[in-house]
Amino acid sequence: MLYHLLFPLAGQFGPLNVFRYITFRSGGAVITAWLVAFLLGPYLIAWLRSLQPAGQPIRDDIPETHFKKRGTPTMGGLLLLLAILISTLLWADLTNGYVWVALLVTVGFGAVGFADDYLKVSRRNHKGLPGRMKLLALCAVGFVAALWFVYLTRAPLATGLAIPVFKNALLPLGYAFVPFAMFVMVGASNAVNLTDGLDGLAIVPVMIAAACFALIAYLVGNLVFANYLQVRHVPGTGEMAVFCAAMIGAGLGFLWYNAHPAEVFMGDTGSLALGGALGAVAVATKHELVLAIVGGLFVVEALSVIIQVFWFKRTGRRIFLMAPIHHHFQKKGWHEQQIVIRFWIIAMILALAGLSTLKLR
């Protein structure tokens, strides 16, 4: 909005020319999103507490330390959604289709998460939406977004899968690209959801991944930088950097209230939305496979659950003391903050590894 209101006036007032730069607007998006989350946080948390006197329902089979968290409200993802929406609408180029697809996925997945959280709180049960219904709703939003991405992107990139490291490698998926893109967004969404089990555990890796993809989006959307790095140039995706910056700012504001001991949990409202948003940016920038590296922590968390369920059904025994894997380390006696900080370090290392693929050609 600010871009459309102020940049046209640059001819009369030179300093307004800064609104043409994605880097400037990304900086504005970070600050705006942080301010919205930080300032609205106390009011939203108070409102959630009034609606949830008993807080988020706690499962009986989780580590004992979690019982101390009784009474903490959930659905704090609403704070993240508000901050991302307001900041993106203020600072992004709203004629850019990629921005609207990213917002569709964020809001759509967030709405599914909100319904899930609401049912858990209203029923006082840790079970919300039936699993199949939740997956179907996420897939429906992801399917629409995937089709929109294909429409926005020029051929052959529209339905092609870029392979990291190999500069000219583009795997033509054809009609299979739509379900693949849908899988990336829904998979990333659920992986972040599984990671969100300890205070601050999910939000910092999300911000790290968002920072990486802000850089990737800026480079991929710039013809000069894309040619220099020999990566696929996707016109228009530079604006995704502003969206990612809004995610970072919103995450910083939310972390103020989600740091141990958390005053609020993001719930499925936030985790599904943030994971879907990362998946959407990865699809837009044609770096879907790089997301698996940058967001490797989320992949490991999801795999730990898949492996645990598969092995238990096959043998009746468990590989991990508890899944997702952060609970395994809790059962081994690691302190919650110890797990969180070590997982943050792993997320940073994986993010650097993912970014290195930009230069390895």
Account of the protein in words:
- With 361 residues, the protein is mostly helical.
- It has one domain.
- The chain has a two-stranded antiparallel ribbon.
- Helix 2 runs parallel beside helix 9 and helix 5 crosses helix 6.
Q: Strand order, main sheet: write it out.
A: 1-2
Q: β content, as a range? A: under 5%
Name the overall outline. Answer: globular
Number of DSSP strands? Answer: 2
Fraction of residues in helices?
A: 55-70%
Question: Span between N and C termini?
Answer: 38 Å
Q: Provide the low-confidence segments as ranges.
A: none
The assigned structural class equals mainly alpha
- Summed over residues and divided by their number, the pLDDT gives a mean of 93
The main pleated sheet reads as: 2 strands, antiparallel
**SSE order, as H and E?**
HHHHHEEHHHHHHHHH
Number of continuous helical runs: 14
Question: Radius of gyration in whole Å, from Cα?
Answer: 20 Å
Number of domains: 1
